[in-house]
């Protein structure tokens, strides 16, 4: 599990840790970790340009530059403001023989030490020019703690930001490195301990990882299991216009942990679904979770009927246009940005620019868990607990992918996972299956459903079914 902390949490932990290790101790730990990553990633005969800002982020970069110079690396340093650069760091870099330059020129490797957790979002003046140079010249960029220009607490990018290939972040991740456009600017994350971990309070948000399978070992059936104990998921999806959504949602559900899939809907659609998937049972009956809405008809009745059953309910697509004013925490809503914008009566661009507060607002307003689909899918519980998904590929922007996700998440709900865990796990494995599919190039959504069982199996290893 990857944990992310807001700036004030990091500051508080830093304060406590500094009493133990000293401020210089923390900075040296950060600089050492940074220098190690640079030494591993940058070819030994290349020149690394280190961009240095006015605060301790620049201090980390300067001490790392000194360490790299000492190890024989060629280092150019560009100071944003000579008068404000970290004094001891500057002396160390000079002493180690780093070269000082006025501005970026033809360097292909860059360390972004302009601003870290002390940053106000948005870059101006020379910092903005240097970020533009990075955007145009596309060198390989290693960001120090955070890419400069992002909102560290929320992942907003109000203006220009440095686009990094990798971000070496200290003490713990930050929400802005996981969420929204900030996440896209961060690239790969390397979290380095600098001695503050034991002083941190509860994370602001978390990301499940593919190594977290042991937490879900209870999903693996045992010798006593039967189809009902594994879970029955009921699906009401598809319409004459979108029959495919029914097939894809069912395929997603069958790829999950449920022992049985029920399908309800018009007779003709039921027949078609059972023709394609003979294991499916058509018609109403007892279920442990409902999925309603993918490609569905514009009718409030299926939503009302599912909510009347006292089991977890996933509402997607057309079902989101028929929400009662208040739901309950075992309801999982799965909008994309456009659907959430409609639900909240705001513009889609507003949701895309700052997704987290919009997902939180909806979760609070409906007292339901909200899974907001996007390049970094968010799952937010009514009490604000948030999981961010970091798996996936841009090829996932394909018709039907959401139908598969809804069915798969519903399957996990029917097996007893709470809405937050089911949403987070479904998003993680759906994204991982898409990454696997993308190895062969673009793919249709049904490939995700075909790959999900093996992705789930790998995730749950070494806890294999007996
Ligand atoms: N966490 C840890 O345990 C450890 C953390 N460490 C490191 O410390 C870093 C935090 O350092 P920091 O507090 O000095 O803040 P930093 O990000 O360097 O920037 C502050 C300066 O930038 C300026 N400024 C800000 N935004 C601006 C803008 N948009 N445009 C222009 N100027 C702007 C701001 O100006 P001011 O707001 O004061 O006017 C101030 O001068 C942290 O990210 C990590 O790298 C390690 O050393 C040790 C372990
Ligand atoms: K930075």
TrEMBL record:
One of its GO terms (biological process) is metabolite repair. AMP binds at residues 373-377, 402. It comes from the Bacteria. Its cofactor is Mg(2+); K(+). The keyword Lyase applies. One of its GO terms (molecular function) is metal ion binding. (6S)-NADPHX binds at residues 56-60, 116-122, 145, 245, 295, 336, 403. Its EC number is 4.2.1.136, 5.1.99.6. It catalyses: (6R)-NADPHX = (6S)-NADPHX; (6S)-NADPHX + ADP = AMP + phosphate + NADPH + H(+); (6R)-NADHX = (6S)-NADHX; (6S)-NADHX + ADP = AMP + phosphate + NADH + H(+). Gene3D superfamilies: 3.40.1190.20, YjeF N-terminal domain. Keywords: ATP-binding, Isomerase, Lyase, Metal-binding, Multifunctional enzyme, NAD, NADP, Nucleotide-binding, Potassium. Residues 210-459 form the YjeF C-terminal domain. InterPro entries: CARKD, Nnr, Ribokinase-like, YjeF_N_dom, YjeF_N_dom_sf. The keyword ATP-binding applies. In the N-terminal section; belongs to the NnrE/AIBP family. Catalyzes the dehydration of the S-form of NAD(P)HX at the expense of ADP, which is converted to AMP. Together with NAD(P)HX epimerase, which catalyzes the epimerization of the S- and R-forms, the enzyme allows the repair of both epimers of NAD(P)HX, a damaged form of NAD(P)H that is a result of enzymatic or heat-dependent hydration. Homotetramer. This is Bifunctional NAD(P)H-hydrate repair enzyme. It comes from Aeromicrobium piscarium. The gene is nnrD.
